Amino acid sequence: MQITQCLHTAVLVSDLEKAEHFYGNVLGLSKVERSFKYPGAWYQVGEFQIHLIVDPNTAPHLQNLEKWGRNPHVAFSVANLDEAKTQLLDHNCALQMSASGRPALFTQDPDGNIIELSQS
Questions:
Q1: What residue ranges in the chain does DSSP mark as E strands?
Q2: Domains of the chain
Q3: Entry pTM
Q4: Rounded mean pLDDT of 7-11?
């Protein structure tokens, strides 16, 4: 087997409207058309997609409350981490700087899914 590309990741959300606001407005991801009947939304990031799938019973399951990066998470590269941090704070998003000292931070979507933003 030779895996050649990562296509998408699925993220469970309980409230699609709140999730769409976070991923579309706060993070600024581009929404793409989808042809499935179950509730959800898809966002494009380069050649990669984030698939939001509605599950009203989803609940946050952080195993490490002190270091968010040591939980399952999705990581994005950003051009300017300071601008990303300001945008998150302007939207009242909780965040945690990377404990490693590298230019990265972690935040949570409305369902507690961890998102890493790293300046490359």
A1: 8-13, 30-32, 40-45, 48-54, 73-78, 95-97, 104-108, 114-119
A2: 8-54 (3.10.180.10), 68-119 (3.10.180.10)
A3: 0.91
A4: 95
